[in-house]
Amino acid sequence: MKALVTGASSGIGRDFARELSRRGYDLILAARRVPRMEELARNLKTHVSVVGVDLANLDQCYDLYRQARGENVDVLINCAGFGIFGPFDETDLRRELELINVNIRAMHILTKLFYRDFKHRDSGCILNVASSAAFQPGPLLSSYYASKAYVLRLSQALAEELRRDGSRVYIGVLCPGPVRTEFDSVANVRFSVKGLSSEFVARYALDKMFAHKTLIVPGFTMKAALFAERFLPQSAVVRLAYHMQKRKTRPN
Q1: Cβ(111)–Cβ(103) under 8 Å?
Q2: For residue 150, what is the enclosing H or E element?
Q3: Whose CA is closest to 103, among 172, 149, 72, 159?
Q4: Contact (Cβ atoms closer than 8 angstroms) between residue 84 and residue 148
Q5: What is the number of other CB atoms lying within 10 angstroms of the CB of residue 231?
Q6: What mean pLDDT do residues 5-14 have?
Q7: Which one-letter DSSP state was computed for residue 8?
Q8: N or C terminus of the chain: which is more exposed, having fewer CB within 10 Å?
Q9: 79 CA to centre of own chain
Q10: Which candidate in 115, 144, 145, 204 is catalytic?
């Protein structure tokens, strides 16, 4: 058994690698920070290949697929992603385009290519990592929230196509709330509520993936918040989201 994990150098991606190794999976780890993945690999008991890749680069997305396609990958976890915080007229356009390339384009390319392979052989699992941000607009984190909505809706649509085809291929989407990772430092924010541990989220997500659950939301608090949101008008949801994001502003 073999799994490909993107964004494997830190956070949830790193803990996906640890948990999959504990479950007996050989691994292909992909991210920009090779030394971190090599250190991780030394502490895992299954066979690990490390691939240095910048998923903001189109050609490197295809290169990663070409390197992995002959490895009989059983599980693809698209975990690479990051956020950018700030008013839309002040955030850096170059960084936003990098965000779109990593969070959306790279995920789409790898999903598409492995989806075709998995359908051809009628087996395989794809887990795309979105966020609870996917369920609503996100003022001050607008590009990130919008990117995760794409991940959520694409994954749900493909799951329905697979169901109607009677395919044994699985695709699901993980939508956690705040998680204690490097996300806040990269996005230059601080969470206003305590996040779940990345270890718990990875373990929970894999349990649900192997149970073939399409939409995976860890934690009772986030499940309750998403349920309550259904009863609010969209205007109230987006205003509440703004106030929640504003509270994340790091002090100077």
Answers
A1: no
A2: helix 142-165
A3: 149
A4: no
A5: 7
A6: 96
A7: T
A8: C
A9: 3
A10: 144
- CA 231 – CA 215 distance, rounded (Å): 20
Q: Which amino acid is located at 74 in the chain?
A: D
Per-residue confidence at 242, pLDDT binned at 50, 70, 90? low
15's tokens: 């803990």
246 included as an active-site residue: no
For 181-240, how does the pLDDT look when each residue is reduced to its tens digit (9 = 90+)?
655 555 455 555 567 899 999 999 999 999 999 999 997 666 666 655 666 566 666 666
Q: Is the model more confident about 205 or about 70?
A: 205
From the candidates 148, 150, 204, 248, give the one annotated as an active-site residue. Answer: 148
CA distances from 164 to 8, 28, 154, 159, 161 (A): 32, 31, 16, 9, 5
Residues 6 or more apart whose Cβ sits within 8 Å of residue 45: 21, 22
- 115 included as an active-site residue: no
Candidate ranges 24-38, 132-146, 167-181; pick with highest mean pLDDT: 24-38
Residue among 85, 62, 75, 70 nearest 29 (CA): 75
Give the DSSP H or E segment for 54: none
